[in-house]
Design brief:
The protein is built from 6 helices and no strands. The chain is an all-alpha fold. The model has no long low-confidence stretch (mean pLDDT 86).
Length: 137
């Protein structure tokens, strides 16, 4: 993918959909009723759409700095974690008060880290395919 805008859009959409799906799986792991947190994946999807818009504007402005999948994934991850902080999803509250709501907050952060690791591994595989066995990774 030579076009940086297309590449960044694909990375943003994949990471957004993975965040929504992992959030859905995290809700399934808790004992919370559907009415209590059932709309959380839609809220995460709305936040991810905001991140896509802000991320694409950032990539357009700083086009020369975002040349790899990993840099684009780091941009998405930092914006996503910033929105989680603004959403007041405190991951450390679970260790003080062990409720399902606080567990879900922890899982939002853990899911985010797992998705970033998936993108990191994909970047390594993609770089090996494009550049061969060189040490330019």
């Amino acid at each position: 993918m030579k076009n940086i805008l297309l590449k960044s859009l694909v990375v943003f959409i994949v990471m957004s959909l993975l965040n929504v799906q992992f959030c859905e799986w995290s809700i399934g792991a808790t004992n919370l009723p559907g009415g209590s947190v059932g709309m959380l994946p839609i809220l995460i999807l709305i936040f991810c759409l905001i991140i896509i818009v802000v991320g694409l504007i950032t990539v357009i402005i700083f086009k020369r700095n975002y040349t790899s999948l990993l840099k684009i994934a780091i941009l998405f991850e930092s914006l996503y974690l910033l929105l989680l902080v603004l959403m007041r999803a405190n991951p450390f509250s679970y260790f003080l008060d062990k409720t399902d709501e606080n567990f879900l907050n922890v899982m939002l952060y853990v899911n985010s880290i797992i998705i970033f690791l998936i993108m990191y591994i994909f970047n390594k595989i993609y770089s090996k395919m494009v550049y061969g066995n060189s040490d330019k990774l």
